[in-house]
């Protein structure tokens, strides 16, 4: 068991009177090390942040110091760790840092990095907790807005089973094991700042010896060593020190769960039951919490009579369908795009600002492709969602060029993911950000949503040429 000293009084604020208020750091604090997967040296600084701003990562090594919000909408990869992305800017292995902030009760903070991955330290969140303890936390005037789970959420993803039940605080119950059932461990605990620091934050990351070759071949764990990870080989545990907890492996899984849950952007009140959790399942659970939060709003909108003179508002199932600068109706869309029935995948542009554009497609049962995809079970083809992203990106590129006599040719797509089916009656909202322009070649990151839930995403490349 770890030896823990008495928590500083500034840190103890987390669980007392200020629990109803948002909190941030008292002052900046820094730490340097190497990234686990990248192996790159990195300097990291935690900074105080304004109320309601949440947690943000800032890449100070890149031009413009771009920021990425720690929100599940920005999760791009979940293989062995959680990666956030905005356009072509990425931050890998964010879960340990996020767990430390969430566990210590920090709602708002900026994390500055001069590389693409936080330092791994000793493979746990212990050093990050020490950073927070060294400067303390301060209460802010704005109230904290935790979400209390209203009904159970169940999830099955591969070998992972997860259920989130309503609860008064946050509690995690977890069972972990490898595919062969080795080192099966169980642990359950409430999560408060004191319990987090004492019972979970010291648990180190681990892997099985037979996984190492695969990880290295896939460009991972370049910074891994027995100084920052525990390696399991058959029945032996390879480590530079004794295990810190009898159930250190499952406690580290719970540490990861806490970090990934913080991607909701607000504290959760509920009881998580997890069997063989993974980053992919953790993030999917957060997405389902988001859907539960939005469900009452969608129901209310369903039964609310439409305004007498506003067809657009009556049809909107979410706040994303409100229009703004740069909006255009179908006639405006057809001025900029040459596509026509049955291949025009954009009904209107909701807003356009700088390098960002949001379009919408009303998916109806009259779509020609529903005749064969699939009879009796109509689903919008994923490739047509990809085409919608490309068409919306093309509108943005052509409008920027201010030449209606140009065409945007789709060249390639990368990191394509289809998450949920799109059905007749859905309104597909297509959000696109132009990430790079070089001459007539453009690259963009696109996301398709239905009722604020991501259904597909991709990075597309296209060329603008004269018609």
Can you describe what's shown?
The chain is an alpha+beta fold and 467 residues long. It folds into two domains: 288 residues, lpxc deacetylase, domain 1 (Ribosomal Protein S5, domain 2); 153 residues, Hotdog Thioesterase (Thiol Ester Dehydrase, Chain A, Roll), CATH 3.10.129.10. The chain is 23% helix and 33% strand. It is built from ten helices and 25 strands. The strands form six sheets. Strands 11, 12, 13, 14, 15 and 19 form a six-stranded mixed beta sheet that branches. Strand 14 and strand 15 form a beta hairpin.
Topology (elements, then pairings):
Blueprint: H1 9-12, E1 21-25, E2 29-34, E3 41-48, E4 55-59, E5 67-69, E6 75-77, E7 83-86, E8 89-91, H2 95-103, E9 109-113, H3 126-135, E10 137-143, E11 147-148, E12 153-157, E13 160-166, E14 170-176, E15 185-190, H4 193-200, E16 206-208, H5 212-217, E17 230-233, E18 236-238, H6 248-261, E19 268-275, H7 279-302, H8 311-315, H9 330-336, E20 348-353, E21 356-362, H10 382-401, E22 406-418, E23 427-438, E24 441-450, E25 453-466
Parallel strand pairs: 4-9, 11-19, 14-19, 16-17
Antiparallel strand pairs: 1-10, 2-3, 3-9, 4-5, 6-7, 7-8, 12-13, 13-19, 14-15, 17-18, 20-21, 21-23, 22-25, 23-24, 24-25
Helix pairs in contact: 2-3, 2-6, 6-7
Question: Can you give me a brief rundown of this structure?
Answer:
23% of the residues lie in helices and 33% in strands. With 467 residues, it is an alpha+beta fold.
